[in-house]
């Protein structure tokens, strides 16, 4: 085992064993790990860390009293954490929490034994967003007793949570693990399709040999995690079609999916089936660019709603091209793309992208959250997304045509100076009496908050 990994694992165990009183040796070990191994973040591996609120509070107090700042993440249930505990965890450095909600169906919650109250789950996750802690919410699809209606409820809840601001929503096919009630009840119904391993998540990174495939076939109880249990009320292939399309699209195009659903009246399963009519037959080929192309082609076939859905898709693509979230300790927003050249002389633009739209997408997005959604009137505009590094957020704003041209030029690789010169020259052709427009353009960008603070004009 690499030494650094060993130290990180030791660090997690050390901090999980919180004493009744703060231990000086714990503080010194934490400081040593930071100073010698640059350990600034860690994860606590426990299915439900907050089941003992008193212990978690002691743990948070312990971290605060060390005087060291660490980022950390953990797992919990939505019914064992409340807002005061969230605030204590945030103040102690918690940045993300994993929740296994499993299903968006109240009936399925009872049948599969999780028994979460979904209204409370939604409120807990809303509180977490307001407190400033990221969440990963995991769902399971393909329970034996799950109906199409239950599946729809799960997909809608997953989408709602993304629209609510939950950073990461996951959809996983059911695995009949050894020792589970699912395996005991449905062992005689287990099926194995080697080409479906891509979406059987617990084995999705494993390439198996022919010999290993023979072992799996001969000992399915031992290797039950390589098998699936066909749902009783819909085809097993639907589980993998949903997983193969919605896992990615719910994360990266949630607004587009919701706009598509609201403007057409299609169900989520209906959207999946339309995507699958376009996608290649082999699941392994369903890579992000292929999924996005299929979504574009579905949208292109729409009627009167096509332009609005295209605008919402263009808005999400703009945001996606500007930012991403890191892995590991989770939740850190970073600029994605070519940044300003550090040694470039003169003023520099904040990282930004711009889209030319035919609708007021901001108003349309707000309307998507209302029950009575209607197609808004057309209104051509240019919408810019600006990455604010100071507080790690993306700001959107309407911009004029001149600002759009400057942002586009920089986004395509030009320096701000070159983009300003090009726009200034074109303005000079229209109004030659003015001469050089560069300083006016810089002041215009500065007034819009588009210049980096360290290079603003005097």
The residue fraction in helices comes out at: 40-55%
Overall mean pLDDT: 85
Nearest-angstrom radius of gyration?
Answer: 26 Å
Number of helices: 18
Structure description:
The strands form 3 sheets. A 5-stranded parallel sheet has the order 1-2-3-4-5. Strands 8-9-10 form a 3-stranded antiparallel sheet, with helices on both faces. Strands 6-7 form a two-stranded antiparallel sheet. The chain has helices at 3-16, 24-37, 53-66, 83-91, 106-112, 118-131, 148-164, 181-186, 210-218, 236-252, 254-264, 268-278, 288-300, 306-322, 361-368, 401-411, 416-430, 438-447; strands at 41-43, 71-76, 94-102, 134-141, 168-173, 323-325, 333-335, 352-357, 381-388, 393-399. Strand 2, helix 4 and strand 3 form a beta-alpha-beta unit. It is 47% helix and 13% strand. Helix 3 (53-66) runs parallel beside helix 4, helix 12 packs across helix 13 (288-300) and helix 16 packs antiparallel against helix 17. It is of the alpha/beta class and 458 residues long.
Write out key terms for the chains shown.
458 residues, Transcription Regulator spoIIAA, three-stranded antiparallel sheet, globular
Which helices and strands, and how do they pair?
Layout: H1 3-16, H2 24-37, E1 41-43, H3 53-66, E2 71-76, H4 83-91, E3 94-102, H5 106-112, H6 118-131, E4 134-141, H7 148-164, E5 168-173, H8 181-186, H9 210-218, H10 236-252, H11 254-264, H12 268-278, H13 288-300, H14 306-322, E6 323-325, E7 333-335, E8 352-357, H15 361-368, E9 381-388, E10 393-399, H16 401-411, H17 416-430, H18 438-447
Parallel strand pairs: 1-2, 2-3, 3-4, 4-5
Antiparallel strand pairs: 6-7, 8-9, 9-10
């Amino acid at each position: 085992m690499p030494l650094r990994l060993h130290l990180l694992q030791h660090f997690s165990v050390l901090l999980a064993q919180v004493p009744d009183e703060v231990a000086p040796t714990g503080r010194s070990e934490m400081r040593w790990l930071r100073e010698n191994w640059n350990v600034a973040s860690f994860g606590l591996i426990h299915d439900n860390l907050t089941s003992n609120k008193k212990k978690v509070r002691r743990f948070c107090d312990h971290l605060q009293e060390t005087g060291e700042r660490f980022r950390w993440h953990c797992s919990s249930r939505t019914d064992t954490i409340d807002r005061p505990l969230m605030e204590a965890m945030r103040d102690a450095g918690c940045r993300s929490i994993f929740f296994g909600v499993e299903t968006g169906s109240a009936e399925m919650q009872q049948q599969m034994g999780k028994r979460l109250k979904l209204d409370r789950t939604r409120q807990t996750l809303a509180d977490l967003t307001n407190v400033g802690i990221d969440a990963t919410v995991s769902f399971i699809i393909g329970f034996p007793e799950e109906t199409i209606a239950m599946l729809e409820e799960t997909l809608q809840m997953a989408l709602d949570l993304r629209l609510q601001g939950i950073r990461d929503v996951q959809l996983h096919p059911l695995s009949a693990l050894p020792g589970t009630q699912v395996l005991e009840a449905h062992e005689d119904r287990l099926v194995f399709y080697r080409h479906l391993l891509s979406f059987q998540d617990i084995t999705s990174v494993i390439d198996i040999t022919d010999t290993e495939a023979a072992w799996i076939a001969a000992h399915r109880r031992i290797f039950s995690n390589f098998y699936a249990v066909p749902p009783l009320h819909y085809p097993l292939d639907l589980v993998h079609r949903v997983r193969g399309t919605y896992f990615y699209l719910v994360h990266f195009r949630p607004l587009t999916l919701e706009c598509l659903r609201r403007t057409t009246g299609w169900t989520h399963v209906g959207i999946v089936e339309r995507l699958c009519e376009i996608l290649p037959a082999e699941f392994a080929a369903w890579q992000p660019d292929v999924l996005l192309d299929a979504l574009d082609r579905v949208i292109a076939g729409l009627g009167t709603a096509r332009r609005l859905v295209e605008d919402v898709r263009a808005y999400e693509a703009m945001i996606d091209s500007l930012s991403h979230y890191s892995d590991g300790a989770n939740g850190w927003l970073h600029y994605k793309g070519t940044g300003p050249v550090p040694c470039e002389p003169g003023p520099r633009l904040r990282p930004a992208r711009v889209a030319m739209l035919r609708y007021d997408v901001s108003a349309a997005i707000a309307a998507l959250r209302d029950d009575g959604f209607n197609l808004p009137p057309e209104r051509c505009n240019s919408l810019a997304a600006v990455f604010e590094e100071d507080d790690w957020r993306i700001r959107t704003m309407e911009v004029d045509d001149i600002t759009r041209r400057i942002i586009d030029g920089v986004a395509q690789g030009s320096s701000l100076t070159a983009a300003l010169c090009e726009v200034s020259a074109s303005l000079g052709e229209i109004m030659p009496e003015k001469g050089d427009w560069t300083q006016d353009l810089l002041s215009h960008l500065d007034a819009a908050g588009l210049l980096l603070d360290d290079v603003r004009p005097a």
